[in-house]
Design a protein that fits this description.
Layout: E1 2-6, H1 9-26, E2 31-34, H2 41-54, E3 62-65, E4 67-69, H3 80-87, E5 99-100, H4 109-122, E6 128-131, E7 153-156, H5 159-165, E8 178-181, H6 184-188, E9 192-197, H7 203-211, E10 229-234, H8 244-254
Parallel strand pairs: 1-10, 2-3, 2-6, 3-5, 6-9, 9-10
Antiparallel strand pairs: 4-8, 7-8
Helix pairs in contact: 1-2
The structure holds fructose -6-phosphate (F6R).
Length: 258
């Protein structure tokens, strides 16, 4: 696990965007796993800027989103389809047919989930998975007690997640209770993972995920089992890390490492 702590959200976002760009430059037809929510907004903004100003090319890229709310149509302003279109896809040159987002309106969720998993495999697997983290330690919508072997499926959202996400809706009642989400097992198969976190309300989840025991009660702790995970967090989200000084020492010394 590599842990990079940045002073601002902007630095966090730029660091992550550079890591994405490095992957796309090395492998122009990379398969990216994408997250929604507040956390990756700055990263997507920076990728759009890199596309416009520096020619960062998405013409051969394929993307798979982590999750979608069940019951929201693609053009619902709070759907993750809408979010991705507005914040990334409409600004870059990714072909429409290379974009995969779980459906929140299929009439056969079991079949859709199996197909989604199969499509990931058929596209060669995910090269880079971007993640946020919930205040309850979830990755994607793998809420506490999700199996580390779980695959794409329907999950019932935890009360805390519903309350956290109510800020995007007019009332708490409007927040969907179910989501379709990649599983922890699906995520762990990505070749590289970058998890972003910012803000004080993520400090406890980040510390549990990095320094706590591996437990399905904090599904992000499953990332301890993955061999190529990069955490990029801002100073507030790093606030509860006991070994913060050590991680910063490693980063400072890495420059001259043999
Ligand atoms: C979203 C997702 C979620 C979020 C998490 C944090 O696609 O998978 O796990 O990353 O809930 O959300 P924000 O970034 O809004 O705090």
């Amino acid at each position: 696990m590599e842990i990079i702590v940045k002073d601002t959200v902007e630095d966090m976002s730029k660091t992550a965007a550079r890591a994405v760009a490095r992957i796309l430059n090395a492998k122009p037809d990379a398969v990216l796993g994408l997250a929604t929510g507040s956390t990756p907004l700055g990263l997507y903004k920076e990728l759009v800027r890199m596309h416009k100003d520096e020619g960062l090319d998405f013409s051969q890229v394929t993307t798979f989103n982590l999750d979608e709310y069940v019951g929201l149509t693609q053009n619902h302003p709070q759907s993750y389809h809408y979010f991705m279109h507005e914040n990334l896809f409409k600004h870059i040159n990714i072909p429409k047919q290379n974009i995969y987002i779980p459906s929140g309106t299929t009439d056969n969720y079991a079949a859709f989930c199996a197909w989604y998993e199969q499509r990931i495999q058929q596209c060669g697997g995910i090269d880079l998975q971007l993640l946020g983290i919930g205040s309850d330690g979830h990755i994607a919508f793998n809420e506490p007690a999700s199996s580390f072997g779980s695959r794409t499926r329907i999950k019932t959202l935890a009360r805390q997640t519903i309350e956290d996400n109510a800020r995007f809706f007019d009332t708490l009642d409007q927040v969907p209770i179910y989501a379709i989400t990649m599983g922890v097992g699906t995520i762990l198969e990505a070749r590289k993972i970058i998890l972003l976190a910012n803000g004080k309300n993520k400090a406890s989840a980040v510390a549990s995920a990095i320094e706590g025991p591996v437990t399905s009660m904090i599904t992000a702790s499953a990332l301890q089992l993955h061999r190529d995970v990069l955490y990029v967090v801002d100073r507030e989200a790093a606030g509860d890390l006991k070994m913060l000084e050590y991680y910063e020492w490693i980063q400072a010394k890495m420059v001259d490492a043999p």
